Amino acid sequence: MLGFRLPRVVTMLLAGAFLVTALVLAGLYLWSPQATLRITTGPNGGMAQRFVSAFISSTEAAHPRVRFETVTVPDLAASSKALEELKVNIALVRSDVSPPTNGQSLLILRRDVLAIVLPPGSPIESFGQLSGKTVAIPTGPVQNENSHALDLILSYFNVSPGAVKRIFVDPAKIGAALREKRAAAVLAMGPIGPGQVVDVVAAVAKATRGTPSILDLDEADAIAKRFPGFEEIDIPKGAFKASPAIPDDDGKGIAVSYRFVVPTTMLNAVAGVLARSILKTKAKLMALTPMASQIEAPDPDEKNPILPIHPGVAAYLSSGDQSFFDAFQTYLYVIGIPLSVIGSAIALISGLVSNRKLRKDQEKIFRLLTIGDEASNASPSELEALQREFKTILETCVGKLAEGSSETGQAAVSLAVDHARRSIEERRAELGRASRQAGAEADLAS
Questions:
Q1: Which domains does the chain show, CATH number per domain?
Q2: Are 184 and 124 in contact (CB under 8 A)?
């Protein structure tokens, strides 16, 4: 009698476990949870703030389950601090303004060149000769940050920042400030192309009825090495005015970069999906704001210690476009965001959870996701092999659930299991339809 009871007990336990799994999957499907990301907006009124608004609008439209919660900050330094304190998931950061120590680059939104624009006939030929002069700075949300950037470059040339007077001038009155001798030069910071530098050059040319010039900076490479928040940048001839060309020859300059920065604890999958989503919707973003035309991926080979590329973004860039992201970005957000929060907690209370165990669990989840992707194009024999592998991983996952894993872990496993199961079933049905159609065509042919 006992020999018959034991299999029944085992069968009932397994059936109960599968029933619990099915109920969890059904609940998650009906619940349709949303992932919420907190993001800083940048200084009020700035172009960066308008870009963030456009980015949120575009991303939420493409991914209904992803919601962004904006966090208003008074300045760029506060944006960096919010990320350091793990109050946000994404921060808008300028490379030379208090970069967060726990931050890694998701994407580069734009690069702004620092240019000293001189009126026609100016005797100034180097930054050192700005000592004792007055520099006009266009007013705006980052005028103080721009002034501080000038301080750093002046210090490289052993010029005390106090030796160079600053006046903040309405952009529309910049030309008049030079014409009236209230300033000897203008500090402009903007991209190569339409932006503040081009506008200032045009204003000075109109006010002085001559051809302005850009102060050369042959020491750009050395300055970038001393101040890692800066980077050397090539400025092509005619970058800021075509005829006559300004500058009149190719040259070097210093630039700062605006970036989306995420904490080091963000999961690689989440960072990779976020970067891909922005890069893939760049054209749509450009229709909402011209600033989007400057978006670019960070250089994976860059060795600058300030704001290095996030490993998840580097992995995405090196492996190329991965098709399983196309249909299941939402699931990755839902799985990744809670785990990212857990990652932050682990960083704060280091040692409570084994990193090796976490990596193994993540590998199982990612394998389930890739099984779903591979199933969508699998042959019948390949589909059977994927089915067997799926069952093997499922047994392990059910064991995890039965052991009482965390709610976040259960949600991640359940979503991944559901994704793989549905993909296999859909492919099996598709192959069945194709087989039946082929049979029908053969009958007609005979």
A1: 109-259 (3.40.190.10), 326-439 (no CATH)
A2: yes
